[in-house]
Amino acid sequence: MQGNSTNVDDFFSISSSSTQDEFWPSNSSEWTEVAPEEQGLNSIKISEMFEYIENLSFFALDSVIIVRNGYLITEEYLHNNEIYRNIDNPKSYYGNTTIHYQASVTKSLMSILIGIALQEGFLTNLNQKLYEFYADIWESGFIYGEQKKNITIEQLLTMNSGLIADWHALYPSDAETKVTTNSIKFALEDVPLGFTPGAEGEFTYSND
Q1: What pLDDT digit, counting tens, does each position of 76-95 carry?
Q2: Which of 28, 102, 124, 129 is the most exposed place for a label (fewest CB within 10 A)?
Q3: Is 111 within 8 Å of 157 (Cβ atoms)?
Q4: Which residues fall within 8 angstroms of residue 3, CB to CB, at 6 or more apart?
Q5: Sign, Cα dihedral of 192, 197, 199, 204
Q6: Are residues 24 and 64 in contact, defined by beta-carbon separation less than 8 angstroms?
């Protein structure tokens, strides 16, 4: 794609403001796949996108899914940045049933779930504090325990809770074990604060 326009409008074959039929499936088995042009996308640009991905050298993509107006446009799984189904002798790799490490995608999923919880009345507002939900397991010996009690849902979502980001460096020997065993208790008991909750922001894994 070198030399080609990367303007997002190039991906649309018609005006993005045009009325499109919408179909949102109720479960994963009902997704309907259609040609890109049926939903106003440019199939040539999508092909060029995959050509560009194949030439990437600084990181690898394992899958690409494009959904528009509830319709599946593209679903491809990749191996070494090459489309899996185009490989002559592909190794067993990621597919549509493979469990994949999500990393910070969890942040977006958590925000969506919090929004649903608010809409359904399970939460009152984003100012509710961490302590309200974990009072039954809270112990006096938790590091920075009194300050952590004041951490709000909003602070966790916006990454200004104060929970320190690099807990791997602090607990190189047992961090992974503790997180796997009980990630909530690990965050409450062991993860220190880098600053007062709400005072500043810092990208961190601890808020997930």
Answers
A1: 888 776 666 666 655 656 77
A2: 28
A3: yes
A4: none
A5: positive
A6: no
Q: What is the rounded distance in angstroms from the CA atom of residue 181 to the CA atom of residue 175?
A: 10
127 CB contacts (<8 Å, ≥6 apart)? 152, 153, 154
Task: Give the domain ranges of the chain.
Answer: 8-86, 105-189
Q: Tell me how far apart the alpha carbons of residues 193 and 200 are, in angstroms, rounded to a whole number.
A: 12
Helical (H) or strand (E) element with 43:
helix 43-54
Q: List, in order, residues 6 or more apart from 111 with CB less than 8 Å away.
A: 157
pLDDT tens, position by position, 98-144? 887 777 788 889 999 999 999 999 999 999 998 888 888 888 878 77
Tell me the C-alpha distance between 168 and 114, whole Å: 27
User: Which one-letter amino acid corresponds to residue 15?
Assistant: S
- What Å distances lie between residue 67 and 25, 31, 71, 114, 119, CA to CA? 12, 10, 6, 23, 24
